[in-house]
Write a structure and sequence with these properties.
By secondary structure, the protein is mainly beta. The protein has strands spanning about 5-10, 15-20, 25-30, 40-45. Strand 1 and strand 2 (about 15-20) form a beta hairpin. The chain is globular and about 40 Å long. The two termini are about 25 Å apart.
Length: about 50
């Protein structure tokens, strides 16, 4: 878990960003609803020069 900010921009549309810069590495954002089977995952990497 990474501390983050979030803002709802419209119905079912959110902007999220970390409170601190992310170090190089692999990350994932996981969306889930407690009690439901449907889970969505978005993965990404950070590589700074």
């Amino acid at each position: 878990m990474i501390p983050n900010f979030q803002r709802q921009l419209a119905d079912n549309l959110y902007k999220i960003w970390p409170k601190e810069p992310l170090p190089n590495g692999e990350y994932a954002i996981v969306e889930y609803t407690e009690g439901k089977v449907n889970m969505q995952v978005w993965d990404f990497g950070v590589k700074k020069k």
